[in-house]
Amino acid sequence: MTWRTVRKALDSAWPEPRKKLPPRATALDSYKPVIDEILRADLDAPRKQRHTVTRIFHRLVEEYGTDVSYGMVRYYVAARKPEILAESGRAPREAFVPQTHQPGHEAEVDFGDVTVRLGGELVTCYLFSFRLSYSGKAVHRVFAFCGQEAFFEGHVHALRTLGGSRGARCATTTSRPPSPGYWD
């Protein structure tokens, strides 16, 4: 270890990021335009007539006499095929719909059995879990029984602990405790 390494370690607890090396040339580089043409031609071909990676590899070996491995072709085709689809405008569009929650309007409830060691022996208890969707604040309570009374008592405890409710209604109305229930 040199004094420069020690100085860098004293200056920052985090190491410097590694330098990116330029990509090395491969035996496949001169055949990449050929593979791209095959993939572009497959865009208009019927589904059953499109080239598989194996067929592309065999064409390169038979028609061009290449000395490349199947793995090199497979990795290149896997990376390049989505790019060619995007360039042609035929790629599926990615969509993202953000999930938004207003403060205090939704909560998620789960009520199920858990096994705990109590007094040295395994006992089945029932865990009520209430979590607000906006803030992520949660209230948990363990019950010795799994009746509807425990389910409702868990709600009362959670709402008192979190400061009450304003017009919350349960989206599930079954005779037994749902797992999970959603509040809206």
Query: On the 0-100 scale, what is the average pLDDT?
Result: 86
Q: Give, in spatial order, the strands making up the sheet with the most strands.
A: 3-2-1-4
SS strand fraction: 15-25%
Order of helices and strands: HHHHEEEHE
What is the rounded Rg?
A: 30 Å
Number of helices: 5
- Estimate the helix proportion, in percent: 25-40%
Distance between the termini: 61 Å
By secondary-structure content and strand pairing, the structural class works out as: alpha+beta
Number of strands: 4
Uncertain parts: 170-184
Shape descriptor reads: elongated
Instruction: Give a short account of the largest sheet.
Output: 4 strands, antiparallel
Helices, strands, pairings?
Elements lengths: L2 H9 L20 H11 L10 H12 L5 H19 L18 E12 L2 E12 L5 E6 L4 H15 L18 E2 L2
Helix pairs in contact: 2-4, 3-4
Core attributes:
elongated; alpha+beta; 5 helices; disordered C terminus; four-stranded antiparallel β-sheet; 184 residues
